[in-house]
Design brief:
Blueprint (H helix, E strand, L loop, with lengths): L9 E6 L1 H18 L5 E7 L3 H10 L5 E10 L5 E9 L9 E9 L3 H11 L5 E9 L12 E5 L5 E2 L15 E4 L7
Parallel strand pairs: 2-3, 2-5, 5-6, 6-7
Antiparallel strand pairs: 1-9, 3-4, 8-9
Helix pairs in contact: 1-2
This protein binds 1-O-pyrophosphono-5-O-phosphono-alpha-D-ribofuranose.
């Protein structure tokens, strides 16, 4: 799906396909260099990170393994509920492994700060974070992502994995949702 298919629902395009892919390629180059000679396990956080993961791994030049977790921190609206729970845990035992968590967005930071703490208790050799997007509020949280794709303003974004009430995940771009769609 393309923003041109949604003329009344999208206010503006924040990031084009080209901008996203170019940044993913740059970060993949950094990750290849930083983890050279080490086994890396990428942990994608469902469902938002699926598109980031799918494109990111194809930019890498090294072997990596992938695993997935599903956690819940949001209701169906645009506000964080403040509660994190595991809906699907990792298949892999991460003790002694180098783990890089792959996320679509760091918003309040609640999800990632909780996740990093949780994964760190499992004996991983290292736990780092790559988030494609970071919102301003997140800088107040004790999360320091090693890789950040883009710092974005405090707007409600959808597309490229990010949803509103499970819609817009299959949008090619990252776009600002018109507040009329969610009654804002
Ligand atoms: C979104 C996003 C992050 C989290 C970020 O997930 O994918 O996991 O919210 O918000 P925070 O920094 O305020 O915690 P969501 O729970 O909406 O699930 P989804 O990935 O399935 O859309």
């Amino acid at each position: 799906m393309d923003v041109d298919h949604l003329p009344t629902e999208i206010s503006s395009v924040l990031l084009t396909e080209e901008q996203i892919q170019e940044r993913l390629e740059q970060i993949a180059t950094e990750v290849d260099a930083d983890y050279q000679g080490r086994d890396l396990l990428l942990v994608g956080i469902l469902k938002g990170a699926t598109l980031v993961m799918a494109d990111f791994v194809r930019h890498l030049k090294s072997h990596v393994q992938m695993d997935w977790m599903a956690v819940s921190s949001y209701g169906s609206g645009t506000q964080s509920s403040g509660v994190v729970r595991i809906l699907k845990d990792l298949d892999a035992d991460i003790s002694g492994r180098h783990v890089l968590v792959v996320e679509d967005i760091l918003d309040t930071g609640l999800t990632l700060s909780w996740l990093v703490r949780n994964l760190s208790t499992r004996g991983a050799a290292s736990v780092e974070v790559f988030t494609l997007l970071r919102k301003p509020e997140a800088v107040k949280m004790p999360v320091s992502p090693r890789y950040v794709g883009f710092d974005i303003p405090e707007v409600f974004v959808v597309g490229y994995g990010l949803d509103y009430a499970e819609r817009y995940r299959n949008l090619r771009q990252i776009a600002v949702l018109d507040p009329r769609v969610y009654g804002g």
